[in-house]
């Protein structure tokens, strides 16, 4: 019997009151990324370079940078380390995040696609995660302080 898994994509779009160059830095600079995304961020920002983000204790995601076109486009693989607290159905390298930054009247339009998620439960969980973290990015890139992550409490 052959089993197939429907692969799903989560899409998000938001406007950020900052230039694309500023938003880009919050995506690829570990010190800036840790202000909105995780307690510990390590990045080797080059094609094939690995990144590792500890969102909160025991929840660790990891992937590799695939494409970098500053400050317009960023693509990286995405998944959760074994025992890293994330969905076991999304191991490192099994899904892909694509981000496009475009100048807009307000500053930057960010479009995000999280592709190849293995079914509705994983898509829902990752959609919830992006809905939590993208507003934190929006605030930090615009010069604000997103404060401590309420998911840590």
Written account of the structure:
The chain has about 150 residues and is an alpha+beta fold. The protein has a single domain (about 10-140), classed as START domain (Alpha-D-Glucose-1,6-Bisphosphate, Chain A, domain 4), CATH 3.30.530.20. The protein is built from three helices and seven strands, in the order E-H-H-E-E-E-E-E-E-H. It has helices at about 20-30, 30-35, 120-140, and strands at about 10-15, 40-45, 50-55, 60-70, 75-80, 95-105, 110-115. A hairpin with a 6-residue loop joins strand 2 and strand 3. Helix 1 crosses helix 3. The relative contact order is 0.24.
Attribute tags:
single chain; alpha+beta; Alpha-D-Glucose-1,6-Bisphosphate, Chain A, domain 4; 7-stranded antiparallel β-sheet; 7 strands
* Count of the separate structural domains: 1
Strand order of the largest sheet: 1-7-6-5-4-3-2
Q: Report the CATH superfamily.
A: START domain
Distance between the termini: 45 Å
Shape: globular
Report the order of strands and helices. Answer: EHHEEEEEEH
CATH topology: Alpha-D-Glucose-1,6-Bisphosphate, Chain A, domain 4
Mean pLDDT across residues: 92
Question: What percentage of amino acids are in beta strands?
Answer: 35-45%
Can you count the helices?
3
The beta-strand count equals 7
Oligomeric grouping of the chains: single chain
Low-confidence stretches: none
Helix content: 10-25%
Q: In brief, what are we looking at here?
A:
With 153 residues, the chain is of the alpha+beta class. Helices cover 23% and strands 37% of the residues.
